[in-house]
Amino acid sequence: MALTGRLRSAVVIGGQGIRARKLRTFLSMISLFLGVLAIVAVQASSVLANRALLADIEMNEGKDGTVVVGVPPGTESVSAVLDLVTGHPGAVATTSTGAIIGEPGLTPVNPGGVPLRYADQGGPAMKMVCDGRGNCYSEVSDDKPPPRGNAVELLVVGVTGDIRQFRPFQLEAGSWLDFGGQPSMSPRLVLNREAAEAFTRYQLPAEMTIGGSGSQPSPGSPHPTPRVVGAVHDGSSQPTAYVRADELLRWLPETSNAAQSMGILMTPQASASITPALRAKLGPELAGQIYTHTVDSRERIGGQLDMMKWIFYGMAALVLLIGVAGILNVGLATVGERVEEFALRRAVGTPRLLLAGIVLAETLIIGLLTAAAAIAVGVVGLEAAGQVFGANRPTLQNVEFPWEAGVAGVAAGLVAGVLGGLFPAIRAARIPIATVMRA
Amino acid sequence: MTVTPIQQPLIQLNGVTKTLKGQGEPRPILSGVDLTVRAGESVAILGRSGSGKSTLLSLIGLFDRPDGGQYLLHGADITRVPERRAARLRSQEFGFVFQRFFLLKHLTAAQNVAMALVNGQGWLARRKRRARVLAALEQVGIAHLAKHRPARLSGGEQQRVAIARALVRQPRILLADEPTGALDTETGALVIDVLHAATDRGCGLILVTHDHAHANRMGRVVRLRDGLLVPDRAGVAV
To answer: For the ranges A148-152, A376-380, B156-160, B185-189, which has the lowest average pLDDT?
Structure first.
């Protein structure tokens, strides 16, 4: 009860003090504002950068804890994997191969499936090669290239289920693949952003050459007519199309070993049953080539931004300290002016501790008001940045102000209030009560 | 209500001493003061400037502690009372009126009076607080000025606000240090009336003053001379 009374008294008297000195309060807030805003900005940037980095890694590799298994290519492997994984709710198998969409017999604008920004830049002919772990890359082809034309080479990834439970792609147009019903003879494709850009930039005939990657399609490569059903952002700069695995495998020549890579994404629980079963099915020789790892995206990004974050925090703390010095200066001057008031308050029974509390309450209120202002500016600034720069920087689009930055702002305001008010509070509590008698 | 001053003393000083220690030589200012004040009693303390009147008042009001002697409040020894308890006693037992009014200019008259209630010694709800403040202002005859700031009040009105602030906690003892020093004779007399009225309700009053006319209106007049309190009128006990 006594504590409540003192707290209330401190807040009431502190509020009166602030109202009586509005200009000083405002000046104190200005000196503190930049420091608190710097803390809010650094924390917001750090959280947003972390989120962006994490989202990028999750899209490219998988969510934290996802078990990734690389299976050696080959008909036997494909058959074993599909047997175990198809229809399993906690696992999705992927098989990828190169393909060209566009006019047949021409060199694609991006040989080897390189990103479109390198398209039409000449250079040596490239071809796409995928290894047994599911990693595909471009390498220089020794073959003489045919003439270039309206064709784009891309990576085609066949999936046995909704891969987005492991890699959270953002749907940007149309719809995701429908895994119900029978596979279609006309493969349904979901393009990634880079592949969709190719369709926008070039007039591509809807003809796809599967498995004949590189500048020279292999004789007898199948030519299905695909249907584009949607577009996603998958974080990859390589033109990629996602397709139902059964629709892709229908067109893959069995003899060409065209399914260049095979992989499985699964939950740890699913892995506990699927991985041993897969090893048993493949036999000791192929099982020895299985590659397994667990995605640890949060741990990986943990250290990446730390150094930068702490450097910025240091700079923000310096700015905040300058603000604290300002509020301290104003606080000491104010206590000097209020000597008689504090002595009088002691004369009417106010304890020393409450006098200190009054001064601290004033600086804490100033700190909180400043924090509120800085957070408001941060929210508005982020919104404005999204509208002004969002078109060029997608990471700024539809970004919500992170609550962690709000908490950091309030904490910075409170810390600054305490640091700036502590010495004035001690000085106020030490004012001799007899000051009123000598006045 | 009339209170007969025949009961346990409110305050009792026995041989109280105080030496002021400044930058120069220590200066004994009180050399063994004896004083007893009972409920409803009024005492005027006269003395030359620098004789130690205000120092004595600051000891009685627990602003400071005596070097020697004994100080009893309601019979309890508070000579060496710790600061926390002293603050509580200042709030509950004493009301102070000073020569300068010490009103906070950014607060209204009512808020200045309420200052004595918002001091961390318990908490009163706003409605009760307002009622107590208005009653105190009524007591000194300026309830109609409750919302006025000090700058809009005359000297006499400001001093009455200060007296209301001293009375709002219904203290047992009023300590007034030259409360009429900054006022003209007529206004000063009105202020003394207000202070004197408090003794009718059983409050003890100790008035430090240079003015014999005001002093003579008190029940007892003593003079501080050479560090000792002596009767100023024949036959009046200290």
So the answer is: A148-152
Give the residues across from B70 on adjacent strands. Answer: B14
Give the span between the Cα atoms of A129 and A257, in whole angstroms. Answer: 12
Closest by Cβ to A436, choosing from B83, B102, B115: B102
Which residues in A have their CB inside 8 Å of a CB on B? Answer: 1-2, 4-6, 8-10, 12-13, 16, 19-20, 340-341, 344-354, 433-434, 436-439
Calculate what percentage of chain B has a pLDDT beyond 70. 95
Q: Which domain holds residue A176?
A: 67-294
User: Three-state SS for B108?
Assistant: coil
Whether the CB of B223 is below 8 Å from some CB of chain A: the reply is no
A232 and A332 in one domain? no
pLDDT tier at A427 (50, 70, 90 boundaries)? very high
The answer to whether residues A334 and A284 belong to one domain is: no
Last residue of a domain, one of A294, A312, A341: A294
Asked if B122 is an interface residue toward chain A (Cβ–Cβ < 8 A), one would say yes
CA–CA gap between residue A253 and residue B187 (Å, rounded): 115
Is residue A31 located within the same domain as residue A98? no
Domain boundaries B11-231, corresponding CATH code: 3.40.50.300
Q: Which distant-in-sequence residues (6+ apart) come within 8 Å of A250 by Cβ?
A: A183, A185
Q: Which of A294, A317, A351 is the last residue of a domain?
A: A294
Which residues of chain B are within 8 Å of residue A354 when distances are taken between CB atoms?
Answer: 119-120
CA distance A436 to chain B (A): 8
pLDDT, tens digit (0-9, with 9 covering 90-100), for A179-237: 888 888 888 999 999 888 888 877 776 677 776 544 344 555 667 788 889 999 888 88
pLDDT, greater one: A305 or B147: B147
Structural tokens at position A191: 């393009």
A333 and A313 within one domain: yes
DSSP for residue A363: H
Q: C-alpha distances in angstroms, A164 versus A133, A280, A281, B109?
A: 20, 28, 27, 70
**pLDDT given for residue A134 in this prediction:** 56
Q: For chain A, what is the domain count?
A: 2
ipTM, interface predicted TM-score of the complex: 0.88
Do A375 and A286 share a structural domain?
no
